[in-house]
Amino acid sequence: MPFEKAEKLKKEYTDKFVVVADGVPELRRFAGLTGVVKTVNMNGRALVEFAGTADISWYDIDPAYLKFVDAPVAKKADTKQPAAPADVKPAEKKPAPAQKKAASPLELARQQGAGTSAGTTQSSPTAPC
Q: Regarding beta strands 17-20 and 58-61, do their DSSP bridges make them parallel or antiparallel, or are they unpaired?
């Protein structure tokens, strides 16, 4: 790809919100996600980071499969879960009773060290002058 065409694509696509076109089997995993074009590499493919996931990878995608959007598209809610009726209030949660958690070995050592230096004082073996 010529350098000029890659630079033109870079100016056109960089920092724009995009979604992946439907009907491309290889890109099905990005359906419903909005991405931000980070840059366009020298082979003319857009490097896209998709929002809404813990994955911070940049994916190399042909610009022909990308559509510009004005703002991030909200991900569609799962239709498998039935909606809760509006008149039913969720049960109030009672706070769990406080449980004494087991101290780690480091905490035990700190407590033991604090107890000998602060809690008990030893008298000096030397007599007063």
A: unpaired
* Beta bridge partner(s), residue 61: 46
pLDDT tens per residue across span 64-115: 999 888 877 666 544 455 555 555 556 666 666 666 667 788 888 888 887 6
Compute the radius of gyration of the chain from its Cα atoms: 30
Query: What's the CATH number where 11 sits?
Result: 2.30.30.30
pTM here is 0.53
> Among 72, 70, 9, which Cα is nearest to 35's?
72
The helix (H) or strand (E) run that includes residue 6 is helix 3-13
Burial of residue 98, with CB atoms counted within 10 A of its CB: 0-12 exposed, 13-18 middle, 19 or more buried: exposed
In the numeric block, which tokens belong to residue 57?
């990878």
Domain assignment of residue 78, yes or no: no
Domain that holds residue 40: 3-69
